[in-house]
Amino acid sequence: MHDGHTGGRSADSARMIDVDDLPDGLVVTDRDGHVLTVNRAAARLTGVTHEEAAGRHVRDVFSFRDQDGRDWWKWLDPYGGLPSRTRQPELPLRTPSGQEMLVAARLVRTPERGGEVVRVVITLRDARVRARLERSRADLVSTVAHELRSPLTSVKGFTATLLAKWTRFTDDQKLVMLETVNADADRVTRLITELLDVSRIESGRLEIHRQVVDIPARVRKIIDGRIAAGEPEDRFRLQVRGELPETWLDQDKIDQVLANLMENAVRHGRGTVTIVVEPNEWGVAVSVRDQGEGIPPELVTRVFRQFWRGNARRRGGTGLGLFIVKGLIEAHGGSISVQPGPEGGAEFRFMVPTGTPDFA
Question: Is this prediction's pTM over 0.85?
Answer without folding.
Answer: no
